[in-house]
Write a structure and sequence with these properties.
Layout: H1 2-13, H2 15-24, H3 30-48, H4 58-84
Keywords: Membrane, Transmembrane, Transmembrane helix
Length: about 80
């Protein structure tokens, strides 16, 4: 359980969370923001596993992609709400 919480927390504070939010704020299209966030999460997981799918754990990969998608959609919502105020 602590391993799961640590993985999720570290992904929020690492590349998928920060860059996913930043890339999500670049667009107003929610679908594009989610895809960009997911790709950033995939890239981060592969980068830290020396670009080998054999060394990436399933939990780490799923957490990074999921967090990247959530951060991308959150960034898009921030942009949409901020643009209308």
């Amino acid at each position: 359980m602590l391993d799961l919480l640590g993985t999720i927390g570290s992904n929020f504070l690492s590349l998928p969370g920060v860059l996913g939010l930043a890339f999500g704020m670049m667009t107003r299209n929610i679908g594009l923001a989610v895809v960009m966030g997911g790709l950033i999460g995939l890239g981060e997981a592969l980068m830290f596993a020396d670009f080998s799918f054999a060394q990436v754990g399933g939990l780490e990969l799923a957490a990074s992609i999921g967090i990247g998608m959530i951060a991308g959609s959150l960034g898009c919502m921030i942009r949409r709400k901020g643009a209308t105020v």
